[in-house]
Design goal:
heterodimer, A: mainly beta, 4-stranded antiparallel β-sheet, B: mainly beta
């Protein structure tokens, strides 16, 4: 099957610091990767879509300068939460899709806590 | 605003019971409907991708149906087992935005 890893699984940081989350497709090439955010008791909300080698497309209301996305290779996308604040504390999860398939494969997610 | 609703929000059943839950989605601009099973601390696992009205898909004791004209999908679990305990997510992809819109999920607890 298609496996997507995400690292770290949990991170605690101080307010004002930046945090980088990595998303890797381990056994397939992902031309498109997606970043979602989930608040407690809510559904997964799409933050941005990234295509390898091009700029990410952000959803309305998501600050691109706050959430930097890089998709430098067909197996790696990174999300950097810059100058994190307590309100950025959330669950972030990535997914990846092959060019020729409809299915999106998810990583296990990252729990971010900003103190 | 595209809305995907799942019901019930949570469900407790006894081992051996059969159960089903619902995903409602917009009936226009349909492209695909996805079902995922999400166990705690794991990645959501893709169960089904359904694209045609009237589709029925099956994977072991789990099956799903799709009605795109009225905008709903049912997920059925036959003879529930404790290992079926998880949150089941559905997600709708519209043909005009191409994005997956998720429901809030149905959390199933199967008691031995």
């Amino acid at each position: 099957g298609a496996v997507v890893s995400q690292h770290p699984s949990r991170v605690i940081c101080k307010s004002g610091t930046s945090v980088k989350i990595e998303c890797r497709s381990l056994d397939f090439q992902a031309t498109t990767m997606f970043w979602y955010r989930q608040f407690p008791k809510q559904s997964l909300m799409l933050m941005a879509t990234s295509n390898e080698g091009s700029k990410a497309t952000y959803e309305q209301g998501v600050e691109k300068d706050k959430f930097l996305i890089n998709h430098a290779s067909l197996t790696l996308s990174t999300l950097t939460v810059t100058s994190a604040h307590p309100e950025d504390s959330s669950f972030y999860i990535c997914s990846a899709r092959r060019t020729d398939q409809e299915t999106q494969y998810f990583g296990p997610g990252t729990r971010l806590l900003v103190l | 605003i595209l809305n995907v609703e799942q019901s019930p929000q949570s469900l407790h059943v006894q081992e051996g019971d059969s159960t089903n839950f619902t995903c409602s989605f917009p009936s226009s601009n349909f492209y695909a409907l996805h079902w995922y099973r999400w166990e705690t601390a794991k990645s959501p696992e893709a169960l089904f991708v359904m694209t045609l009205n009237g589709d029925e898909k099956k994977k072991g004791r789990i099956s799903a149906t799709l009605n795109t004209k009225e905008g709903y999908s049912y997920l059925y679990i036959k003879g529930s087992q404790p290992e079926d305990s998880a949150t089941y997510l559905c997600a709708f992809r519209s043909s005009n935005t191409g994005k997956l819109i998720f429901g809030q999920g149905t959390t199933l607890q199967v008691k031995p």
